[in-house]
Specification:
By secondary structure, this protein is α+β, with helices and mostly antiparallel strands. Among the domains are: 2-104, no CATH class; 241-298, no CATH class. The protein is built from 12 helices and 15 strands. It has helices at residues 2-24, 36-47, 61-68, 77-100, 121-130, 134-142, 146-160, 166-185, 244-257, 261-264, 347-355, 360-363; strands at residues 190-195, 200-205, 208-218, 227-236, 240-241, 267-270, 276-277, 295-298, 309-313, 321-322, 336-338, 342-344, 377-390, 394-396, 402-404. The strands form 3 sheets. It has an 8-stranded mixed beta barrel. Strand 2 and strand 3 form a beta hairpin. It is elongated and about 90 Å long. The protein starts with a helix and ends in a 10-residue tail after the last strand.
Length: 414
């Protein structure tokens, strides 16, 4: 009832403004007031926002609908200016959502808050208003990403279907805005994207995929978490520092049963002060998960579980992107085998891409050769690169065809 009264009053006020303007001979130099074509165009666009994976109710459709039915002219210059500003805020809100998405990707840990101000939405809006070209601005944003174009096309197919699949529509709507956010993030920098349900990694630069590969990610009982961070360093010939949970739950029982397990798997036992100990002098039967004072690491080399290199980044989960000696696992369709780390199909290509102009630091090392216990080498990446690990049931194959994946970790929240 209150909304109806408000709209009625607005319409009356709009129609009276022309009389007020004529009396004082005041020019109307507003962005929207006095430009009915602009208001009607904006109203029409917002009414189609569901097809753009946006929600019309987010954009004060009542205000625009009332304005579109009249010249939207008010009794005073102050009222006109205020209303003009309100309409402009609605338009900016809408086009900002087209540029950046109406939400940020849902991650379990937002380690990095990326400041996305790469697109001057206000300037683009003003220039397109002057040319009466708001629909073209919509197309500009929707065509900015090949993934977005495909998602919106697929969304239309599902919305037009005689049998509505609400779950798919929600997935596609979320994915469209995720990729808007990703495209904006990659406007002036490279971005590494890991999608867990598809077990894939892609390196984006604007709308181009520079590198794509399969991953091995966490199994159901040791899931890989979603997070954001920066990749800062490449470590050649890394140690594998065994997580405490793996040491006590998986390795300790084997130490007790198999005397050769430690040497066969190239493990080192370290004291609390990180001094290497002789495992043959330790009575393993006297230790359990409640009194395990040791650190365990795996020697460097080709048999190391991390392979010949890993990528270093800050993460609350203690996981890495790394090489692996178990290359055959990449032939599997369901690549969920790890304890949470992410094993790369193309680790050397990935490292060289990240190092770029500083590749000579890598090229002086024969990464294909197997060395016996080589010393780790740490190389800083010239430009720290954003890493986004997200959980989306929608991804794309190497031909750009959209694929739907299973909710392997049962994280679906809609």
């Amino acid at each position: 009832m209150k909304k109806s009264i408000l709209l009625f009053l607005l319409i009356i006020l709009f129609s009276n403004e022309s009389i007020h303007a004529q009396r004082i001979n005041m020019p109307l130099n507003y962005t929207w007031i006095g430009h009915l074509d602009r208001i009607q165009s904006m109203d029409s666009i917002i009414n189609t926002s569901a097809s753009l994976a946006l929600n019309p109710v987010d954009y004060n459709i009542g205000l625009l609908q009332a304005a579109a039915k009249s010249q939207f002219k008010l009794l005073s210059a102050a009222d006109s200016l205020k209303t003009d500003s309100l309409i402009n805020l609605v338009a900016l809100h809408f086009f900002n959502d087209l540029a950046y998405g109406n939400h940020e990707p849902s991650l379990q840990n937002d380690g990095i808050e990326f400041k996305q101000r790469t697109i001057n939405v206000s300037a683009l809006l003003n220039s397109h208003l002057k040319n009466s070209a708001l629909p073209q601005l919509v197309q500009y944003f929707t065509n900015s990403s090949t993934e977005l174009v495909t998602i919106l096309k697929t969304l239309k197919q599902y919305r037009d279907s005689t049998k509505i699949n609400f779950s798919r529509i929600k997935q596609l709507t979320k994915a469209a805005n995720d990729y808007r956010w990703l495209r904006a993030l990659g406007e002036n920098q490279r971005v590494v994207l890991v999608n867990l349900p598809s077990a894939q990694l892609k390196v984006y630069e604007k709308d181009k995929v520079l590198l794509s590969m399969k991953l091995i990610v966490g199994k159901g009982s040791t899931q890989t978490n979603s997070f954001s961070t920066f990749i800062k360093q490449v470590t050649i010939n890394p140690y594998w520092n065994v997580p405490h949970s793996i040491a006590v739950n998986e390795m300790l029982p084997r130490f007790k049963k198999d005397n050769d397990y430690i040497s066969r798997t190239h493990l080192q036992i370290l004291s609390e002060k990180r001094k290497i100990l002789n495992p043959n002098k330790i009575d393993w039967n006297s230790y359990d998960e409640n009194n395990f004072p040791f650190y365990i690491r795996q020697s460097t080399g080709c048999d190391n579980s991390l392979g010949v290199l890993k990528l270093e980044f800050d993460s609350p989960y203690g996981v890495y992107l790394h090489d692996t000696p178990e290359k055959s696992l990449f032939n599997s369709t369901n690549r969920f085998y790890s304890h949470g780390c992410m094993r790369m199909e193309k680790p050397i290509e990935m490292a060289r891409l990240l190092m770029e102009k500083n590749r000579i630091a890598l090229d002086t090392i024969d990464l294909e050769k197997c060395y016996d216990n080589p010393n780790p080498i740490k190389i800083s990446i010239p430009v720290p690169t954003p890493l986004i690990v997200w959980y989306s049931l929608i991804d794309f194959d190497n031909q750009g065809i959209i694929r739907f994946y299973k909710d392997v970790y049962h994280r679906l929240t809609y």
